[in-house]
Amino acid sequence: MAADAGLDLVEVAPNAKPPVCKILDYGKHLYRQSKLEKKQKNASKQAEMKGIRITLRIDKHDLETKIKHARKFLEGRHSVKVTLMFKGREAAHRDMGAEKLDLFFNSLQDVAHLEQAPKKQGNQMFMILTPQK
Q: Is the whole model's pTM more than 0.85, yes or no?
């Protein structure tokens, strides 16, 4: 019957008892399957990790601007990695850096929760914020 119609006999459920077959154009079937898989892959896109970089001597207004950017990222359901960079002798004042990052987090507590507490790594300190559910 499939040969008479110029189509293919395709086994769609080989594990069923009895196996299920359909008469259809196999090329079209593969095309539809690939389109469906592509659509599902795009729909399940993971949230990105956005980055914000600040320094220890950042001014109040500049910090507020960075906080606004982080708020926008968090409202867009993205995680935010806040990196505080130490330059020169600033590296001796890690406690001031931790205070700066705590201030940053406290101003975003309504939209974010702390995934990773401030952590030292070389000449920088970072923390990771994720959006609240």
A: no
Is-contact 52 93, C-beta < 8 A? no
Q: Which two tokens stand for residue 33?
A: 């399957």
pLDDT tens digit sequence for 77-92: 899 999 999 999 998 9
Confidence (pLDDT) at 133? 77
- CA gap 99, 108 in Å, rounded: 14
Q: Domain 2-43 belongs to what topology?
A: Ubiquitin-like (UB roll) (3.10.20)
What is the topology classification, in CATH, of domain 49-131? Translation Initiation Factor IF3 (3.30.110)
Say if residues 81 and 51 touch (Cβ distance below 8 Å): yes
The full set of domain ranges for the chain reads 2-43, 49-131
> Which residues have C-beta within 8 Å of that of residue 73, sequence separation ≥ 6?
50, 52, 80
Q: Is the dihedral of CA 51, 104, 95, 88 positive or negative?
A: positive
**In this predicted model, what pLDDT tens digit does every residue of 21-61 receive, in sequence order?**
999 999 999 999 999 999 988 877 677 899 999 999 999 99
